[in-house]
Specification:
Structural class: alpha/beta
Number of strands: 11
Largest sheet: 7 strands, mixed
CATH architecture: 3-Layer(aba) Sandwich
Radius of gyration: 18 Å
CATH topology: Rossmann fold
Number of helices: 7
Helix content: 25-40%
CATH superfamily: Vaccinia Virus protein VP39
Number of domains: 1
Strand order of the largest sheet: 6-5-4-7-8-11-10
């Protein structure tokens, strides 16, 4: 398959998983036969991803809803981390969007807040959201420094090579620093859309973090802010591991059946309780 290898296990055996339609085009997803990672193939080039990120045009209502969801997620993340992570002196937010998260988790003039955002419009908003915010297109603009807290929320699935980003971020982590990753739970969330290059389960997210040098402290399944009855999202709190993991946890068996069941459960819960899932967020930092 043009020499493509799995971003977790480096395997080369894949099976067709699902095909979606986007403006008359087929977008294909494969699943790794070894570790169960689901990914888009063929994937767009880095240049195409950056073009998509900056070419997105929002209606007023879409932008307002997206801004509000980003704000609510930041407030909810602050409460989720309150008992485990002390207020950081420095924070790096990968895919910072409007700047809500880094400004919420690291308020105050003495906190160093750095965001990465490829979307030029969002980057300008994040830069102005709070005095002291520093926002750049990518990691290449950061020449050094260590961060007490690094966050990647609703962005890992959009990255060209998430394993490279996660591994690189270890160089920017303070000795007692933490990493927070949040991504849709593929088994329940719709997940598959043009800009989602990967889809994670709890097992494949844990594997991705382990092989890139991160130890998971805890991983939570939840539906905030979209639904209280469904585990739509996965949030993991991590710290740098002493060594890179070589042994992987087993992937979930019969993942197609589990996803089908999860989607039926989601539709049933939305019918009974109402609610929905997040908008198509195509801003974000891409690697």
């Amino acid at each position: 398959m043009n020499g493509r290898k799995c971003d977790i296990c480096a395997g080369e055996r894949f099976s067709p998983f699902e095909t979606i339609q986007y403006r008359g085009m087929d977008i294909n997803y494969l699943i790794c036969d070894v570790c169960g990672l689901v990914f888009q193939h063929p994937s767009p080039s880095y240049q195409e991803i950056v073009f998509r990120v900056n070419a997105k045009r929002w209606t007023h209502d879409e932008r307002r809803r997206d801004y509000w969801i980003d704000y609510i997620r930041a407030e909810r993340m602050k409460k989720m981390l309150a008992q485990n992570v002390p207020p950081p002196r420095s924070i790096l937010d990968v895919g910072c969007r409007y700047g809500h998260l880094m400004s919420t988790l690291g308020p105050g003039a003495k906190t160093t807040r750095v965001g990465l955002e490829e979307n030029a419009n969002l980057r300008n908003i994040a830069q102005k959201y709070a005095v002291g915010n520093q926002v750049y297109p990518n990691l290449g603009y950061i020449k050094g420094g260590f961060f007490d807290l690094i966050t990647i929320t609703h962005n890992l699935e959009l990255l060209k090579k998430p394993s490279v980003t996660l591994y690189t971020l270890r160089r920017f982590t303070a000795p007692d620093g933490k990493l927070v990753v949040e991504t849709p739970n593929f088994l329940v969330h719709p997940s598959l859309r043009r800009d989602s290059l990967y889809a994670f389960t709890a097992e494949t997210l844990t594997n991705m973090l382990a092989v890139t040098g991160w130890e998971v402290i805890w991983l939570k399944r939840h539906g905030h802010p979209d639904h209280t009855k469904l585990d739509l999202y996965l949030t993991a709190l991590c710290r740098p591991a002493e060594r890179i993991a070589r042994r992987l946890v087993l992937p979930p068996g019969e993942i197609k059946k589990k996803r089908r069941f999860g989607q039926l459960k989601r539709l049933f819960a939305m019918t009974i309780y109402g609610g929905g899932t997040d908008v198509d967020t195509t801003g974000g930092y891409m690697v």
